[in-house]
Automatic annotation (TrEMBL):
Compartments reported by the entry: Cytoplasm; Cytoplasmic vesicle, COPI-coated vesicle membrane; Golgi apparatus membrane
Assembly and binders: Oligomeric complex that consists of at least the alpha, beta, beta', gamma, delta, epsilon and zeta subunits.
InterPro entries documented for this protein: AP2_Mu_C_sf, Coatomer_dsu, MHD
Organism for this UniProt entry: Nosema bombycis (strain CQ1 / CVCC 102059)
Membrane topology designation: Peripheral membrane protein
Main localization of the protein described in the UniProt heading: cytoplasm
SUPFAM superfamilies (UniProt xref): Second domain of Mu2 adaptin subunit (ap50) of ap2 adaptor
Record key words, sorted: Cytoplasm, Cytoplasmic vesicle, ER-Golgi transport, Golgi apparatus, Membrane, Protein transport, Transport
Function: The coatomer is a cytosolic protein complex that binds to dilysine motifs and reversibly associates with Golgi non-clathrin-coated vesicles, which further mediate biosynthetic protein transport from the ER, via the Golgi up to the trans Golgi network. Coatomer complex is required for budding from Golgi membranes, and is essential for the retrograde Golgi-to-ER transport of dilysine-tagged proteins.
GO biological process: endoplasmic reticulum to Golgi vesicle-mediated transport; Golgi localization; protein transport; retrograde vesicle-mediated transport, Golgi to endoplasmic reticulum
Protein name stated in the entry: Coatomer subunit delta
Length: 468
């Protein structure tokens, strides 16, 4: 009996496939891959354990019947001849002709379920080879990271070009696979947004139970590529004051550190702020986060080995320890902004035709909390991942320390590994890039530091990982 029919064009990779029983796409792709790696002539037979291929070639097209081992071969070639003669008609007529071939008889073939649902010996070998190759490549990657420590670009470990793919064509046979099925744009999820943002951000109104609460908060905008090269990074910070008791609304704050180029609230006395003193003649409002000063930082320009690269703004030099240092201690730029808060290693393995196993490894350069990494689903299909919502895949980590690492694996079908981009990231982090703090908090000579809660934190405003 006839189990299925394949028609594939080796020039444009178009495929037409019909099976007697419903099967998964992966099974059809395996039949096609197995046939293309076994066919050595333009017409002939390919025998397998439980079935055989009867095929012929005409004008860039392979016409293939998948049949039982006892099926009459002369009849098979006769059917293929009729199929070739019908190719000039309407595509619908061709489909009807193929369906009439497949469903001509209703005999139940005893090995049909075995063929479609049980892996053949070649398929088992194929899966084992792909799994071993993936494990070997991951092992070599870890050895390189341990051996080299840092790559040429200064980033930890070596990064994989996402566009590089494993050549699965040589895993079964040395024969060239001249055509490869592709996923065209009809598989793109039109119902999902092109531009999405993580939905589960844990942003909150910063507050405290202490009578006096001072918060230094920086919001980060960052865009990096898969090689962890910074395309854009900007930090916008502010200091806020929240007083809960009226007894303390006339307090005076003395700043320390890098504050001279900050912008102070116009309600404050300019002579006082020039000296780093914050006070209000009318008294501060109660139970509100009052913004007292703001600042901005970016990766404006860098000096490495005496050679200065200007991008606007003030310069940054590298000290004896190899770390950047500000040529102007009160510059808008900050040395640590030239390192991304979070570095990625993306490792794709093509385990089947257009089916990829992705491994994402992260190494933070800060202590991170509430980490959320969102991968868009718009160009992905048949996803195997535990934490999936309507629009994206989400990887959540409550906290991870500076220099630690973590990894995530998931599997999906896509046209190209770059279809998982852009990846959106959100996190909060204790501390600030800018070196600024409180020297003293007093009112009428009384020290109020013990009654004050001082908090420093960073939070992502926008953080995008792009493919290039």
């Amino acid at each position: 009996m006839i189990l299925g029919t394949l028609v594939t064009n080796i020039r444009n990779n178009q495929i037409l496939a019909r099976m007697k029983d419903p099967v998964y796409t992966e099974k059809i792709e395996f039949f096609l891959l197995e046939f293309m790696n076994s066919a050595t002539k333009k017409s002939g037979l390919v025998y397998k354990d439980l079935y055989k291929y009867i095929y012929t070639f005409d004008e860039d097209n392979y016409y293939v019947l998948i049949t039982s081992l006892l099926f009459n071969e002369i009849k098979g070639f006769s059917i293929l001849t009729h199929l070739i003669n019908s190719k000039g008609g309407d595509p619908l007529d061709l489909l009807i002709f193929i369906d009439n071939i497949i469903y001509e008889d209703n005999i139940v073939y005893p090995d049909l379920n075995l063929i479609f649902n049980m892996d053949s010996q070649e398929e088992k070998i194929y899966k084992m080879m792909m799994k071993n190759k993936e494990l070997e490549m991951r092992r070599k990657q870890k050895e390189i990271i341990k051996k080299n420590g840092k790559g040429k670009d200064g980033n930890i470990g070596s990064k994989l070009n996402i566009n590089s793919k494993l050549n699965i064509n040589n895993t079964i046979s040395n024969n060239d696979f001249t055509g490869k099925p592709t996923i065209n744009d009809t598989y793109i999820r039109k119902d999902l947004p092109v531009d999405f943002k993580p939905k589960d951000k844990k942003r909150r109104f910063e507050t405290s139970t202490s009578p006096i609460f001072i918060c230094f908060k920086e919001k980060i905008k960052c865009v990096i590529n898969q090689e962890n090269k910074i395309k854009l990074i900007e930090v916008m910070g502010e200091m806020t004051l929240n007083i809960k008791e009226e007894d303390f609304n006339n307090l005076e704050i003395k700043l320390k550190g890098n504050y001279e180029d900050c912008k102070f609230s116009p309600k404050l006395n300019k002579k006082d702020t020039n000296c780093g003193i914050i006070k209000s003649e009318k008294g501060f409002s109660l139970n509100k986060n009052i913004a007292l000063l703001k600042w901005r930082g970016n990766n404006s320009s860098i000096e490495v080995g005496g050679s200065k690269v200007e991008k606007g703004g003030s310069s940054i030099k590298v000290n004896a320890n190899g770390k950047p240092s500000l040529s102007n201690p009160h510059s808008n730029s900050n040395p640590y902004i030239n390192t991304p808060p979070l570095e990625f290693t993306i490792w794709p393995s093509e385990i089947k035709l257009n089916t990829f196993q992705f491994t994402l490894e992260i190494i933070p350069n800060l202590d991170l909390e509430n980490l959320l990494i969102s991968i868009p689903k718009r160009r992905l299909r048949e996803i195997k991942f535990e934490n999936e919502n309507e629009d994206n895949l989400e990887w959540k980590i409550d906290s991870i320390s500076n220099g630690d690492s973590d990894s995530l694996e998931f599997q999906c079908k896509c046209e190209d590994p770059s279809d998982i981009f852009p990846i959106e990231i959100y996190f909060t982090s204790p501390g600030c890039y800018r070196e600024i703090g409180i020297e003293s908090i007093k009112m009428n000579g009384e020290d109020l530091k013990e009654k004050t809660d001082i908090k420093k934190m960073r939070e992502v405003d926008e953080f995008t990982l792009e493919s290039e």
